[in-house]
Specification:
158 residues; alpha/beta; Cytidine Deaminase, domain 2; elongated; binds zinc ion; tRNA processing; zinc ion binding
């Protein structure tokens, strides 16, 4: 999770929402990593989890990512929960809860509602405080920037 947090920093450097994800195999080897890329790539699906899963699947040359664990700093949304299910990862570990769009218990209960043969083991709340503080600091900074931009643009009028 510490490593996923460092990937979240990479997203923040790009002005993206700081979320990081890393997929490891049963021995702890990194198969794929990702961070939010949606704004930079004009890609609404480029969430950290999706990017990590794509990279890993390419690396192992298989669309099934059996016996792997995905670490992500924020509770996945419904899109990512769907991708997690389709990729057949074994275990999902996430940091902060997402009360707006979280699909793993905060807003939706994707894995409970969506009954399939494949069951994902889920652990939430790992380094939750650090993960969530990173996000709130980012949004606070962004609000201040927007406010400053507004002040600057209103100055231009006079
Ligand atoms: Zn997502």
């Amino acid at each position: 999770m510490r490593y996923a947090l460092s990937l979240a920093d990479k997203a923040e450097c790009l002005g993206e929402i700081p979320v990081g994800a890393v997929l490891v195999d049963s021995e702890g080897n990194i198969l794929g990593e990702g961070w939010n890329f949606s704004i930079t790539e004009n890609d609404p699906t480029a969430h950290a989890e999706i990017v990590a899963l794509r990279n890993a699947a390419k690396k192992v040359q298989n669309y099934r990512l059996l016996n792997t664990t995905l670490y992500v700093t924020l509770e996945p949304c419904t899109m990512c929960a769907g991708a997690i299910l389709h990729s057949r990862i074994q275990r999902l570990v996430f940091g902060a809860s997402d009360y707006k769009t979280g699909a793993v218990g905060s807003r939706f209960h994707f894995f409970d509602d969506y009954q399939m043969n494949h069951k994902v083991e889920i652990t939430g709340g790992i380094l939750a405080q650090e993960c969530s503080e990173k996000l709130s600091a980012f949004f606070k900074k962004r609000r201040q920037q927007k406010k400053q931009e507004k002040i600057n643009s209103s100055k231009d009028l006079y």
